[in-house]
């Protein structure tokens, strides 16, 4: 996984070179999937929002809602949280 600061720089570069006002920059973190915990996912979301991301995508494998769904950085346009639900047969 890329260090948050490195990814933050990539987001800032994309924002700085954006020429189309309709282009939305979505930053994704897989900190929850990587087992780094909610605190790290929220830290990364805040860093990506600070870098100028329009939306933050927090990807999770958990079946239940987490604090990150309600409190993650939301960017200027909003937040996306993917909660994976397993279907058992």
Radius of gyration: 14 Å
Low-confidence stretches: none
Main beta-sheet annotation:
3 strands, parallel
Arithmetic mean of pLDDT: 77
Strand order of the largest sheet: 1-2-3
Q: What is the number of domains? A: 1
Share of helical residues: 25-40%
SS strand fraction: 15-25%
How many individual β-strands? 3
Helix-strand topology string: HEHEHE
Give the class from helix and strand content and strand pairing.
alpha/beta
Summed up, the helix count is 3
> What is the first-to-last residue Cα distance?
33 Å
Choose one word for the global shape. Answer: elongated
Give a description of the structure.
This protein has 89 residues and is α/β, with parallel strands linked by helices. It has one domain. The chain has three helices and three strands, in the order H-E-H-E-H-E. Helix 1 (4-17) runs parallel beside helix 2 (37-51). The mean pLDDT is 77.
How is this fold's topology laid out?
Blueprint: H1 4-17, E1 26-29, H2 37-51, E2 55-60, H3 67-71, E3 78-83
Parallel strand pairs: 1-2, 2-3
Helix pairs in contact: 1-2
List keywords for this structure.
alpha/beta, about 90 residues, single chain, elongated
Overview in brief:
By secondary structure, the chain is an alpha/beta fold.
